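Archive maintenance. Older records in this collection stored only the sequence; we are now back-filling the structure field for every entry so that each record is complete. The fields below show one back-filled record exactly as it appears after the update. Entries are processed alphabetically, and NAD-dependent dehydratase is next in the queue.

ARCHIVE ENTRY
Title: NAD-dependent dehydratase
Organism field: Kribbella speibonae
Length field: 294
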Amino acid sequence: MKLLVLGGTKNLGRHVVEAALADGHEVTLFNRGQTNPELFPSVRRIAGDRAAPDALAAGEWDGVIDMSGFLVRDVSLSASVLRDRCGHYTYMSSIAVYASKTTPGMTESALLLPWPAGAPEDRFTMDLYGPSKVRNESLLTATFGDRTAAVRSGFVVGPYNPDFGNWGWALAHNVPMECAARPDQPIQYIDARDLATFLLHLTTKAIPGPFNAVGPTHTMSHLANLWRTNRHVINWSPQEDRFHLPHDGTNDGTFQLDNSQARSAGLTLRPTEQTAHDYVAWIKAGNIPPDPPH
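Back-filled structure field:
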């Protein structure tokens, strides 16, 4: 298939492109060419900015995977240009879309965040991150109908990705693991490779709908025990909080989402121990986890 990837040269996007190429798809990248421009030298590139996607008006693709859609204005512009130029449009959304942060077991039909009155559609702020993802999902559905999928994910773990990088680094260098989150904090994540495979699957099979693309819920202490070997200690009171999760339970529901709809649509998840092993091996090979984006 002819696939267009918006972004595609950092973090999860690298895995998406690698998976697409491994499956024999013809990939085109659309980005500014500023991040890791040396990657994928054989892949066709269209240089451009999301704020001015006119360069996309000259092509047609069987599917689009949008890895860089943050600003509502930008996603709206891309959707307008690509509406009649692609088959299926898969959007990388977020678990931050849900209105409740405390309800366990939320499915994709749970209440979503509203758009704040008077909020700007052309500027990014963290308080607009969740509402922007909701608004982008809505405008893509209005534009493409059942030709679109929204993939809602949270922590993404693995090579080239920052999440849980401090644990990988600690295990790779035989120093204590640090976790400022409370031990009974519910937590979910997904291996970057599994998420990339799912994004590609939805796009090539033209499967519509929103999906909670997350792994099983663990407590933080249980997850830490799955990661560590017997000789590694866990520091539950580090000076720096890398997880930024409230201790009062006000965000617990965000990491107890129901992933059955995604599993039914084809999401497969590798064992947690394999994710940890592979991430640590990647760091031991001389790689450094990137800094979190925010």
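Update note: The chain has two domains: 2-154+191-212, 156-189+215-284. The first helix runs from residue 11 to 22.
Entry marked complete.
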